Amino acid sequence: MTLDSNQLRIADNQYVWHPFTAMSAYRDEQAPIIVEAEGFYLTDTEDRRYLDGHSSLWCNIHGHRVEAIDRAIRVQLDRVAHSTLLGLANVPSIELAAELVSRTPEGLSKVFFSDCGAAGVEVALKLAYQYFQQRPNKPQVRDKFVYFDGAYHGDTIGTMSLGSIDRFKNLFSPLLFPAIWSSVPIATPTQPQQERQQLEHWSIELERLLSTHAGEIAGVVIEPLVQAAAGIRVQAEGFLSKVRELTYKYDTLLIADEIAVGFGRTGTLFACEQESVSPDLLILSKGLTGGYLPLAATLVTDELYDAFLGDPWAGKTFYHGHTYTGNPLACAAALASLRLIDEHKVLPNAFRLERILQEQLAPLEELPQVKEVRVKGTMVGIELANGEEPFVPSQRVGHRVTLACRRRGVILRNIADIIVLMPAPAMPAELVIEICQAVRESIAEVIAEGV
Ligand SMILES: Cc1ncc(COP(=O)(O)O)c(C=O)c1O
Asked: Are residues 85 and 325 in contact, defined by beta-carbon separation less than 8 angstroms?
């Protein structure tokens, strides 16, 4: 059965429920139906080409249909597409685990695979909880986690419990486990003194929480440097290393969620590197496979891993696993992507793109309807507002800007009235400049329509 463009649209509206999408409006919006891609462009059923300005939801690293990754998947496909890691091994997952251990911050030595970001975080939470009950020197039941204002770690019940974005979470509150909220000092590069004061203030608050609940907290869960789903909120410099210092001092685990920030998005392979931090647990996903296939990895230290050893009947095993854990095709894609990051010098490119994004988007800060432009690496949040007040939600200002971008051939997504740009770390500068131009024009268009 081959459906034409119109039939596909009808079938999409009839059968598919899109995530994080207001379906009543979506049905009238004629969203592109993607059929193929080339480099950083996506093509739809109407033969329209779009620049992928959000890295296909923050995961694409090198562009689409990249020869080396395509080949790696095909080669693996000729061997085996899937075989389980439950009590068995497969070649690409072993090679990838070794590669990840060699590239991630020191001390992380074991890799537990799963298949999406939220699952990787759930693994980390369960590991931390079980670890404290089994660690040899001081076994304890620790059932508390600290999370930060603006945090987002996924949409499962456990990860939502550590989320801080009300409209995603509030409805489900009765289902969630209680956790301890703390705030984050925000980077204010034009007011360094204010940034330092905030850093001090929130570090003291965090220390107060950790000392009040000493012996009860299994872990502090942080998105290092940037909270992506909060609208690219960049943390004050030094906060991550402070959190590391305090988690050591109060003997709790530092759980770093690098699902969004990992693999070059902030300009270094891992965000933790920028503050020389080694977390106790590190979660990777999204860019892990270059944005090709679903895969997540939770890395831990030897100390944590060793607490799960013992006689098989002693009850120390980690009883957790997903059917497609360590899928060979996904691991083969990840290995190829990691090699390309080196070969194509993706990290220096991402670093250069930060400056280009800053320069290209600086004129927006002159507009009264632009509250702030935040850039870190290739992650950008443009916060639109009515002066200091948010726009009325029914105006859907952010959404209208992304539709205007789409008419200009650029795919982006908004988070409420924050326009998020997330070009792939390997994207050439001239394409990033095109995205910025489309965004500037689209914001001007929506303002001219009336907001
Ligand atoms: C920081 C962070 N953690 C976790 C997740 C959840 O990942 P997934 O959508 O693969 O479950 C996301 C997704 O955007 C994320 O940005």
From this structure: yes
- Indicate the SS3 state at residue 185: coil
| Contact yes or no for 282/105 (Cβ under 8 A) | yes
C-alpha 320/C-alpha 144 separation (Å) is: 20
Query: What's the topology of domain 32-62+345-449?
Result: Aspartate Aminotransferase, domain 1 (3.90.1150)
**Strand runs (DSSP E) across 94-239, as ranges?**
108-114, 144-148, 180-182, 217-222, 226-227, 233-234
Give residue 217's identity as a one-letter amino acid code. I
pLDDT digits (tens, 9 = 90+) for 203-225: 999 999 999 999 999 999 999 99
In angstroms, what is the span from residue 218 Cα to ligand 1's centroid?
21
| pLDDT tens profile 223-244 | 999 999 999 999 999 999 999 9
Residue 1 has pLDDT above 80, yes or no: no
Nearest partner of 401 among 370, 432, 446, judged by Cα:
446
* Ligand 1 centroid from CA 117, angstroms: 5
Give CB contacts under 8 A, 24+ apart, made by 268-274: 268/347, 269/103, 269/341, 269/347, 270/103, 270/104, 270/105, 270/224, 271/224, 271/225, 271/226, 271/240, 272/105, 272/224, 272/240, 273/105, 274/225, 274/240
223 lines ligand 1 (CB under 6 A): yes
SS3 content of the chain, % helix, strand, coil (to 5): 45, 20, 40
Domain 70-343 has CATH 3.30.428.10: no
Residue 221 · residue 257 · CB < 8 Å: yes
Ligand 1 mutation pick, 153, 155, 159, 379, max ligand atoms within 8 A of CB = 153
- As a whole number of Å, the end-to-end CA separation of the chain is 45
Distance from C-alpha of 172 to C-alpha of 140, rounded to nearest angstrom: 29
Q: What is the pTM of this model?
A: 0.97
Domain borders along the chain are: 32-62+345-449, 70-343
Query: Could you tell me the distance, in angstroms and rounded to a whole number, from the CA of residue 399 to the centre of ligand 1?
Result: 21
Taking CA atoms, 9 is separated from 32, 44, 215, in Å, by 9, 11, 55
Residue 410 CB less than 6 A away from ligand 1? no
